[in-house]
Amino acid sequence: MSGLKSRRYFFALCLLATTAANASETVSPWPGGAEAAVILTYDDALDSHLDVAVPQLAQFNLPGTFYLSGARPSIRLRLEDWRKAAAAGHELGNHTLYHPCSKSAPGRDWVKPWHDLDRYSLEQFIDELQTTNSLLTAIDGEQQRSFAYPCGDMNAGGADVVAAIKPLVVAARFFSADGLHRVDDPDYFRLEAYDGAGKSAQDLIAVVEAARANNNLVGFMFHGVGGDYLSVSAEAHQALLKHLSMYPERYWVSTVRDAVAHLESAQ
Fold it and tell me: The pTM is what?
């Protein structure tokens, strides 16, 4: 072997050794050495959550986080079903009492004037959170609660709500294009989630696969599942759950509350 070839060969070996060493230094922050953590969240206390999502999660022994708005009809009419969901290991999260949203945002003609977040005071918004926390505790007995911003809005009457909600909840979720939250980002009041409405099984699975690259926390936001509105099909939802359950070495599936508790304990 010539001198030039020898130097190239030696350099290649050093590069491989360095790459291997760096890879060995990358330690997963998740239980069991999983490559990513996944949170499955469901907004608005819909019948399709109880009729489709909860049975599918049970089929694959996976937990979900259900963000309940206290005034939704299913809270009154199916209270025992929500209590059973909590007893099965699902998290019941806070989604305010009346689901107020900013009516001035594009596409918000459906927002009722008395539920217009632009007209709320910060105190009114916090009152809704406190009332809903009390309602949820009456259902599941839990004291710690995570929150999802209705419509992703973070202002009430022009006032930022993020700092004000921190004494009441342990984390808060909104949504983003990729649903990825870096493990080194300590801001648990802006947890990201990918909107599953209308997405295919391939779309959903691609999101969790992308999370593996940097041991990210990846969130999903679902509304209707096989029904209701802003829906994902029951088949696509089931395919995602099946994929997650097939690869426990890749994915740690958790509730929002437990995922944040795990990250905080590791700091």
Answer: 0.89
